[in-house]
Here is the input.
Amino acid sequence: MSERRNWTREETILAFDLYCRTPFGKIDKNNPDIIELAKLIGRTPSAVGLKMANLAHFDPELQKRHISGMSNASKLDGEIFKEFSSDWTDLSYQAQLIRADMMGENISEAIDLGDIDKMPPGEYRERMTKTRVGQYFFRMAVLTSYRNRCCITGMEKPELLVASHIKPWKDSDEKTERTNPSNGLCLNSLHDKAFDRGFITIDDKYRIVMSSKLKDVRMDSETRDWFWSYEGREIILPEKFLPGKDFIEYHNDVVFQG
Here is the structure.
C-alpha cells in the first residue's frame, strides 16, 4: 500500500477529529481507533498516527507545555486546525458526514443519534443532527483528554462520568464555545451537579473552590469530610484541552455561588 499520495481535505478532517478524541500518549499505530481509520481511508496506522502528530504541531496548549508534535506538518494541516478550532461543532459534523459517506451509510447509522430518524426531513432535523453530533464529540473529546477520570476524585467509571460545561451550554457561542473541549471538565455525576449549580468551581490555577453555601447543608460527617477534603487541591489536568481561562472566569463570576 503506497503512502506517497497526498492527504485530502476529507482525510485530514477525519484525522483531526480523531486527534481531538485521542489522548496524546495514545497516538500510536496499535491504537484500535487509529487502525480503524487507517482501514477506512486506505492508509497504514503508522501514517494516520503521524498525521495526528503533525496536527498536534499546531495545538497552542501543547506548545505551552513544550509538546509540539511533528515539525513536518503540511500547509493543509495548519489550515484544517485553524478552520475548525473556531467551529468545533462543524468539525464533528463534517467528520461524521465524511465517515458515513465513505462507509456508504447514513450519519445516524455511524453514531447513535437517538430518535433523529423519526423527525421529518428538513432544516430542524439537520440542525438537531448537528447538535447531537457536536454533543457526542464534546463528551468523547473531554473524557479522553482526562483519560476517563474525574478531574476531582480520579474516579474511572465512564458510566458515572459527565463532560461538564464550564461556561453553560445555554450561554455559550454555538461555534466557538458549546463543543469546545477547553470548555469542559470530566466530573463524576455528583460533582458535575454541584459544579453546574455553582456550589463548586475552579480558580485560574485550576484549584478547587467550595461555596460557603455548602457549609450549612445537612449531611453525615463522613460525606462532609470527603466533600470538603478536595478544597484547594489542583484538579487532575487533561493531556490536552486545558480548561480555558475565559470559561473559568465566566463560571466564577456568573455561576459560582461564593
Summary: The longest strand covers residues 161-165. The two ends are 60 Å apart (CA to CA).
